[in-house]
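Subject: for your reference before the review

Hello V.,

The reviewers asked for a structural picture of the protein, and I figured it would be easier to keep everything in one thread rather than splitting it across files. Below is the amino acid sequence we used in the manuscript, unchanged from the supplementary table.
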Amino acid sequence: MSIWQKLGIGLSATALLAVAVVFGLDAADRAFPPPLQKADLVSAEVLDADGQLLRAFATPEGRWRLKTTAADVDPQYLRMLIAYEDRRFEQHHGVDMIAIGRAAWQFATHGRVISGASTLSMQVARLLEPRPDRTLGAKLLQLVRAVQIERRLTKAQILDLYLTHAPYGGNLEGIRAASLAYFGKEPRRLTVAQSALLVALPQLPEKRRPDRNLEAATAARHRVLQRIAVAEVVGDGEAERAELAAIPTRRLQLPAYAAHLAEAALRKEPGVAQHRTTLRRRIQQGLEAVTREAAARLDPKVSVAMVMADSRTGEIVGEVGSAGYFDSGRYGWIDMTRVYRSPGSALKPLIYGLAFEQGLVSQETIIEDRPADFFGYRPKNFDTTYQGDVSVRQALQLSLNVPAVRILDAVGPTRLLVRFRRAEVRPVLPPNETPGLAIGLGGLGITLKDLVQLYAGLANRSNPVRLGDGVVDKPGVIDSQPLLEPVAAWNVADILSGIVAPAGSAQHGIAYKTGTSYGFRDAWSVGYDGRYVLGVWVGRPDNGAVPGLTGYGSAAPILFQAFEKSGVGITPLPPAPTGAVRIAQAQLPISQRRFAMTASGLLSSSTREPAPQIIYPPEGAHVELGASGDGTLMPLVLKLQGGRAPFRWLANGKPLTEVSRNRISQWTPDGNGYSTLTVIDAVGRAASVGVFLTK
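And here is what came back from the structure prediction:
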């Protein structure tokens, strides 16, 4: 056999051996992959609507490890990190042979370690598969794991793993947790001094913790800033200026807002890393600050809850379940926004709204506030005194009980509950009881969230909205009619916005109402402007009585302060809709000047059944209807009082299409100008008004 033949055989054998080694290594790589699944174990995060962190939860082993990508971090920090830790990060495949050679030469010439050779990929391998010993075997395994990781992940993914898992002392892992704990901010914008400290800490996280060893932390930051490669990245003179910056000496608490809603988010979607809510962190911070201040002034067993919602979208933008989640004296772990309690007088606006809608009363209609007996039910006013004759406007603003029950008796308790269902609100009645007049004064159970949803229906005249739960149950417009007709809703808002603000609070033009439950157990205040609705509850979670607790004295001041501290500003209430007008008492139709009920129906001043009276539009009114998309006039609402059904309406002498048994009808005019409207009841009595209509 010639030498060339032997050489050929040797080369073939070598090639076969190389192929076998390659296949063997590939098989070993597949058989023993790196534990990348550990990278998925991160802290659960609850975010606001803009993606800002509201609350984070530690991992099962108690680590604060917030998932982080390079997009979440200041670009200058990334440049400093790579310049200091791994200058050839983009070129090598997990192991930097040049760095290994340099480190070996320095060790041989100096007799000690001068610089390391670990790449970011090797550090990620160590973080995912930590080993207590620092033997040669452990280092070799780290090299192998780094190569394996490089085969499976891109450079960007490897960098993201480092940013998420790098240790920073104690139970802090990842740059986001460290930046929040040491600087109180997300790492999107870091100073040179802050970036240098965060680059230095992961090398010896326990020895360099700034909250425990300021001297070591300062020296470590100095070494980073003095590295030539880092100085080239930060720019001329920046390193020297960064040396002068103070290093934080204490660790801050990570954001911890919306405790109850955050826990609800985890229960509804377990295993999800990030939970997006409809809350706004700035608003949430303001509401929680007001809650803490209010709780400090209250009895140690009294708690506070709040819900703020956008009446246009139904989004819950702020929610406080208690005065302190960890306050055992206040049962702080109970979310009082979802507990059924008696609303006291907080439902009265809706009762009066139904009366306005049916044309039973106007704002200046006189109603009696005197002792009354409704088949054995004898309501009394809160202060046990009576005002005599008052206007409907005064009765609602003063929250008088007897007039409210008179109105509810006229509109019917069942009709009130029907409107609740229209808004998708399900109050709870006492066991084995049917809807009675007592529900108008708080004789049912309702949650704070549902009460805010009802008031959102008053604030949003066009569509009732579903608030959702702030997490999974999405808000939106309910496929239903408005809670009240726009004119009726305007009348309610016009009255509520005239209620005097509590002492020490600016008026602001907020429409609001208070309520106090029987026995001083619950104090409520719910208010709205042109955009937001805010509800406040104050009381004892164990349903104990609190002497002196009232909606006006306890909850209303918190409401006004919360509107101010929330930062949303005050949006003016919308203008009066078409057909809305405040009529003086002397100009009201005779049948609407005084409200009274007898067995024969609604009367003005006589005891016999009255003749029909057109109460809207009033005689001589100029009504601007507006035009629809095709240019035709919008319908005109027609309201009457008295008379006997059915009713026939005539417009300019021409009968309308249908005979109606309702006291509210609609008519679409042919055009602008003067029109005469006439109504005839079942026994032939008639009433007429003349009005001028414009677009």
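For the response letter, the relevant points are probably these. The two ends are 112 Å apart (CA to CA). Residues 563 and 569 are 7 Å apart (CA to CA).

Happy to draft the paragraph if you're swamped.

O.
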